[in-house]
Write the structure tokens for this entry.
Amino acid sequence: MNWRALLFIPAVAAGVFLFVIQQRDDDAVEATATEAIARPVAALNAEPAPIEVVITGFGRVEAVRTWEAVSQVDGRVLNAAEALAAGSIVEAGSTLLRVDPRSYEIARDRAAANLQTAEAQLAELDAQVESLSEQIALERRIEAVFQAESDRQRQLLDRGAIAESRLEQAERDLITQQRRVLDIQNQIDLIPVQRVSAEATRRTRQVELEEAERDLSNTEIVAPFTGRVLEEDISEGEYIRPGDRLLTLAAVDAVEITAEVQPSEVGAALSLLLPSADDGSVLLNLSDQDAARQALNTSGIEAVVILSQGGRHEYGGQIERVDGTIDESTGTIGIVVRVPNGGLPDLDLRRPPLTIGAFVSVAFRGTTKSDWRAIPRGSLQLEAEETFVYVADATDTLRRRSAERLGQVNGRAIIDATLEDGDRILIAPPEPAILGQSLSVTESASE
């Protein structure tokens, strides 16, 4: 065995030990140097403030009410308004077209004459009743005279002062008079029946006159409200028949848009605007549309209709109701917004009208009443079911603060966090994030 080789072992071990010690010293120096270097980071000066919440929906402009002119008579069109072209606006009460009324005027005059005849028959019955009443009174007086004469002749016959033939003549005269009174009474008794028939005839003639006047009035088509002509299918000189569609008019005093939005977005917005609204779940209870509409109105959400046509034009709207169904293909619900006078142009604002069928967007805007912070979603950290944010404190040192995530709006997280003076929320933490390390902070204003 070569014992000389063993003499090198202590020397090698000593060298290895010195190398390890030196390497550890170098790592310690490098770590110290790293801690001394300030890490560059971007921070957000997210001051607590009310936050604007915006939800966007899309839909088409619809008429609040429409009116379709359908011919009720037949005849030739004599006059048609020049402003009946599709898209034109007609004023309430204006005459849109006229149909030749001559045949309907004749029918009206005939019905009026028939009514006068029926009324004359009734007047004749009234006069007849009066005449017969006077006549029967007179005939009854004559009957009383004949009755007295018959009684007198019977007394004379009983005394033997006259012949029996004289009594018989007196009784024949009395019977004849009684028959005359009875005939007049029968005529009087028949008059109520005749009156019923005459009154029925008069009512029939009145109905005929009303129908004739209605038909005559239907020869003139009048606009029931101020509206825009959507469709027009008539021309002057054309012969029309009952049931022919003439034109369609849409009211311009207001238009509606059913804006399709995601229920989750609306619920999230309500949870911020109405913290007591149970995360806006009232909107999911579509069977109670009144409660959903009330929640939207109570939240202070304003609806703004936006038309992107020849520029950007905005129209203030009112939330009217919530559609009670969910679209199976898109999963959206409809919020109906009404725009007063939206169908009319606004010359002062140089704003065009909202025409029926136009595709528009609707921005539902609200502002939170609480002083929360809006930060980028990447700034909010989650670790072991704890949410927090990294901050640069007043000494530009990396710290972390607990934060509560309240919701999300427009791609930004809404948080409630208690920060210390000088704290700025980091948009993204350094890698690795070592609490206590120095930072070189570049600040940006809250978006």
